[in-house]
């Protein structure tokens, strides 16, 4: 599906939109500045300190100091409310997550750890005994197994002929009864 607008036309529209957005942003900054100046001119009256005596200047300083304290208390109260609200929002978010019950669990990897490394991790430097499990295994010598089972090498056809029929089965039965083999 092809676009109906060419690339150059898209670029032109994008640049026009950016220019318009920049103009509006600049105008918004100017508006905010004028609003701030207007508000401050309404709230703050200019000070006339010329021609005042020392006692009148001291009274003026006391009044200004009281106003600053009042404003500072209001600022502190608003800041405390804001901090309280942010903590409450955090707690509510945690409660919502708890109610959902969906926690993203990280994928676990299989890690090969030897018994020594595991004991060192659990016990720390106290672990000094080596846990070499293979050293404690019973060793079996190959020569011993060969002595126990002597292998008879012979013609297998003779053995089959001797064991065939009822006589062969009787010989096998007798051999199983007596362990010495007669």
TrEMBL record:
One of its GO terms (cellular component) is troponin complex. Residues 22-74 form a coiled coil. This is Troponin I, fast skeletal muscle. Keywords: Acetylation, Actin-binding, Coiled coil, Muscle protein. The gene is Tnni1. The keyword S-adenosyl-L-methionine does not apply. Belongs to the troponin I family. Troponin I is the inhibitory subunit of troponin, the thin filament regulatory complex which confers calcium-sensitivity to striated muscle actomyosin ATPase activity. GO terms for molecular function: actin binding. GO terms for biological process: cardiac muscle contraction; skeletal muscle contraction. Binds to actin and tropomyosin. It holds the Pfam family Troponin. Gene3D superfamilies: 1.20.5.350, 6.10.250.180. SUPFAM superfamilies: Troponin coil-coiled subunits (SSF90250).
């Amino acid at each position: 599906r092809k676009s109906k607008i060419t690339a150059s036309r898209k670029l032109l529209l994008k640049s026009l939109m950016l220019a318009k957005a920049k103009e509006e942003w600049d105008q918004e900054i100017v508006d905010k500045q004028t609003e701030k100046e207007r508000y401050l001119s309404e709230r703050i009256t200019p000070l006339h300190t010329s021609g005042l005596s020392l006692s009148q200047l001291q009274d003026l300083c006391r009044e200004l100091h009281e106003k600053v304290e009042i404003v500072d208390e209001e600022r502190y109260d608003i800041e405390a409310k804001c901090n309280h609200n942010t903590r409450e929002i955090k707690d509510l978010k945690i409660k919502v997550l708890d109610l959902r019950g969906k926690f993203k669990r990280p994928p676990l990897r299989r890690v090969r750890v030897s018994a020594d490394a595991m004991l060192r991790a659990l016990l720390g430097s106290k672990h000094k005994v080596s846990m070499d499990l293979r050293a404690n295994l019973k060793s079996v010598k190959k020569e011993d197994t060969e002595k126990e089972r002597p292998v008879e090498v012979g013609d297998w056809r003779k053995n089959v002929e001797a064991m065939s029929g009822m006589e062969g089965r009787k010989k096998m039965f007798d051999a199983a009864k007596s362990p010495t083999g007669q």
